[in-house]
Backbone:
């Protein structure tokens, strides 16, 4: 698969159904998570490419959980899925707060050609 766009591995088969590459490889349960390195070797891709594939599959309906230790798995319990959802929500909140801060500075510096500390960055 080298030389191809490895992050575009979500396909629609002849029946019109989505087929996934990563989701079928994953074990059930957090305790059985497959490491990022093992998935990279199985798919012959980089970590960046793996993350892009996981993201695409998730966006197309695959339930792919990730462990803090860097592994991936399919949830075997509602608690595992709930914990994963809470982790995603926490990440989303952090990203939205960061975006809010950047937009605030963008608004405060409207019409300026550059942004300086005097423009309000770092609370000044």
Residues:
């Amino acid at each position: 698969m080298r030389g191809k766009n490895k992050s575009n591995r979500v396909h629609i088969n002849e029946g019109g159904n989505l087929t996934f590459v990563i989701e079928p490889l994953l074990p059930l349960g957090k305790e059985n998570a497959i490491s990022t390195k093992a998935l990279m070797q199985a798919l012959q891709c980089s970590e960046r490419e793996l993350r892009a594939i996981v993201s695409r599959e998730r966006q197309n309906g695959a339930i792919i959980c990730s462990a803090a230790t860097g592994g991936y798995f399919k949830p075997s319990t509602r608690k595992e899925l709930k914990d994963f959802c809470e982790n995603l929500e926490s990440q989303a909140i952090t990203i939205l707060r960061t975006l809010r801060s950047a937009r605030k500075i963008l608004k405060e510096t409207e019409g300026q050609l550059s942004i300086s500390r005097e423009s309000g960055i770092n609370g000044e």
